[in-house]
Specification:
This protein is mainly alpha-helical. The protein has eleven helices and no strands. Helix 2 crosses helix 3, helix 2 packs across helix 5 and helix 6 packs antiparallel against helix 7. It comes from Actinomadura vinacea.
Length: about 250
């Protein structure tokens, strides 16, 4: 089933932006686009993105599968709509008087909090640049946070991609590790200590001098920090790099 209407925009995008209504004329129905999206989100939140199908969502919404197609043209369209619904809009960020670093840091932390509340959405493939309403609002908020940096539009878009990818990668990794630890009935500290012991047994100082210097420092034997510790280190390192970029006067020539 094609999603491309005469106007050139995919139907899911028109639906998300309120440019098209479904279904057509007829008596008022109990089913609605919002109800369908909410049903899909309930399934995704409880059982993961893999559990979302048109038939399953129809059953959750109390309708037939064919009835769903009167509102949503395809499963891919439904996934786009539900993921945008879960993202929601960005929060209010610090004003320009607090500087771009505070605003951009707040944007990153808010994006991380949203993704951590809904880690299942990270299973959705990235098929293109952000175009759904809430995703575009997040992009606008991030660009607004960069005012005062003196960077051109291309550099600001590149920074949105860089920071979004950092958040996405960190949230997915920490979620998958936490899930693995839980399924193995172990703790991160136990895994880290075991990892250090295996490295010590498998490597020698002659071939891996840098690694063994770290092992001798007991890095893998001490207390394990929280995911926030690693996230703060990475974010502050990125922001320090942006400070240097701003002082230099913008991105280097390609």
């Amino acid at each position: 089933m094609s999603e491309e209407p005469d106007g050139g925009l995919p139907e899911s995008i028109e639906l998300a932006w309120g440019l098209r209504e479904r279904p057509g004329k007829g008596p008022k129905r109990a089913l609605s686009l919002k109800g369908i999206i909410d049903a899909a989100v309930r399934i995704g939140s409880a059982e993961g993105l893999e559990a979302v199908s048109m038939s399953r969502v129809a059953a959750e919404a109390g309708a037939s599968t064919m009835a769903l197609y009167r509102y949503v043209p395809s499963k891919n369209a439904l996934l786009s709509l539900m993921l945008d619904e879960v993202m929601g809009g960005p929060p209010r960020l610090p004003g320009p008087e607090e500087g771009w670093r505070a605003a951009l840091s707040a944007w990153v932390w808010a994006l991380r909090a949203t993704m951590r509340r809904n880690p299942w959405l990270l299973r959705a493939p990235i098929t293109g640049p952000p175009i759904m309403p809430n995703n575009v609002r997040w992009m606008e908020a991030g660009l607004r946070a960069m005012r005062g940096m003196g960077l051109d539009g291309g550099a600001r878009i590149s920074l949105i991609i860089l920071l979004s990818n950092y958040v996405r990668s960190e949230v997915r990794m920490t979620h998958e590790l936490a899930t693995a630890f839980q399924e193995a009935s172990t703790s991160e500290s136990e895994v880290v200590r075991g990892y250090g012991a295996m490295l010590t047994a498998l490597t020698d100082p002659g071939r891996f001098p840098e690694l063994h210097a770290i092992l001798e420092d007991g890095v893998f034997e001490g207390a394990v920090g929280t995911p926030d510790d690693d996230f703060v280190f990475g974010l502050e390192t990125l922001l320090d790099g942006l400070e240097a970029l701003v002082r230099r006067g913008g991105a280097p020539d390609a």
